[in-house]
Amino acid sequence: MKTMQQGWLSNWLVKHEVVHRSLGFHHRGIETLQIKAEDWDSIAVILYVYGYNYLRSQCAYNVAPGGSLASVLENRHVVCAGDSSSALLPPA
Q: What InterPro entries does the record tag this protein with (predicted)?
């Protein structure tokens, strides 16, 4: 039986007893995890602490008619270069 390799996040979640399942890595080497909906807020905080400050929803679908909603989310680290305050404020 082949053992699936786990990434740093999966290892961290195991260490801190957060229930999840590693689903492997996609073509860019990023680990895919399955987590329970009630654990999402804890994992989002963990990712934010590690510098992931942008969450993008890629898709969502019903697992079965009237069943659970599954969603695919992607975390990213976004950095703004330079003074972006003018983009956030209305012109004077």
A: NADH_quin_OxRdtase_su_C/D-like
